Amino acid sequence: MRLTVERLKDSLWLRGTLPELEGTKRRQRLSLGLKATPAGLLEAESRAVSLAAAIASGTYPACGLPWDRGSDEARVPALLLAAEPDNLLPVAHWVDRFAESFWLGRVRTSAAERTWARIDTELRRLPRSVLLSMDLLVAVAGTTKPGSRSRLEACKVFKRLARLAELSGLEQLDALRTPYEPAPRELPSDEELRVFLEAVREHPRWGWATAALAAYGCRPAEVFSLLPSADGTGSVLTVKRKGKLPIWRTALVLPQAWFEEFDLRNITRPWECNKPDRYDSAIAKKLVEQWGRWLRRKRAGICLYDLRHAWAVRSIRLNLNASLAAKCLGHSVSVHHETYHRWIEGSDVAALALRLKDI
Fold first, then answer.
1. Distance of CA 208 to CAs 59, 137, 192, 291, Å?
2. pLDDT tens digits for 62-72?
3. What CATH number has the domain spanning 190-356?
């Protein structure tokens, strides 16, 4: 929340860059009127959350400090007054409940562990000792940048937590949630990619994997399980299945000439992946990170997923059926259209223009 509780002699103060009535912001220190004791520190933390909520909602500084509104409420943080009577439990309690519900009936794979780690990253934004309320969730989510992935993920996770705690006002998080779309990347052309693959194919650790990723379009972590076939297809594990175990799917070499050109039947995997049918998410993650760093050193401005995206765009330009292309890539048709909509639309318009020439 970019607010700091400071101790000056025997008192606690709150310091941060706060808005002024005229619209400017100024670095300042606020007296909390609290003694530097453990109990005082807990209330100081609650007041910091209360102030952040007031700033996010636009009521501060016009209405003054939230804990000073009304003589009867002068010593009670506004955050606690707003909390629902049946849910007066600290964040730590509800985070533990969240973890229990997440793992209930779920296979504890390394992929699931990583999913929980991403959720826990958002939950760690919340101060554990403060009582959970919608004001708190809105205030903390409001500290993330609008339009960012952080804002999107925080709102999604906080909404799940709010549902678990049966908090009212879920629409406040919906209103705070802003659309997020990654900036479109400039993908290498097929000819640029072919020249690059020729240059790196013989690398003993990453050469085959890079060529296979570009030719089959699977996810980087899936390449380590890929079993190419001479007919231009291949078997590969689909690893992104929302808590389910990986399953095999059929992938396709595109263009077909790359199978022979880059000798994809001659497999040279990293030694950690000598058993491709035994997928381990933690090992795959570590390998993908190493591989990505190597690729960036070899070709500035290109990442592993650019090779997957290039396969998808290639399939569009070759008029491959979208449903079939989505199956080869291991995602749904809706994800395929959402991810590659600008190329799909461009291809459709170009095809229409070609047909109109004959009219």
1. 59, 47, 17, 12
2. 777 887 764 33
3. 1.10.443
